[in-house]
Amino acid sequence: xxxxxxxxxxxxxxxxxxxxxxxxxxxxxxxxxxxxxxxxxxxxxxxxxxxxxxxxxxxxxxxxxxxxxxxxxxxxxxxxxxxxxxxxxxxxxxxx
Length: 96
Fold this sequence. Notes:
The protein is an alpha+beta fold. The chain has helices at residues 3-7, 25-35, 58-68; strands at 10-19, 39-44, 50-56, 76-85, 93-95. It has a five-stranded mixed β-sheet with strand order 4-1-3-2-5, with helices on one face. The radius of gyration is 13 Å and the shape is globular. The protein starts with a helix and ends with a strand.
């Protein structure tokens, strides 16, 4: 990936609260991210929330952030807090 391509890519870290564990949220987030051409990861946090880091084209990251507000069937999202990160290319989209 050359510098020009990296200039147009962003990363966001989002923490999702509510009933987000045990409802296939991580797998669904991965499916959405891969469909949008994003890299990063989704992992459960010890306090019951979910952390998602998404990197890629701004439009794709924005679409995933919007999707996180609802999530998959069975999830009950009570809040999403996102913050920008320095761009970092991940080798795919992992579930931790």
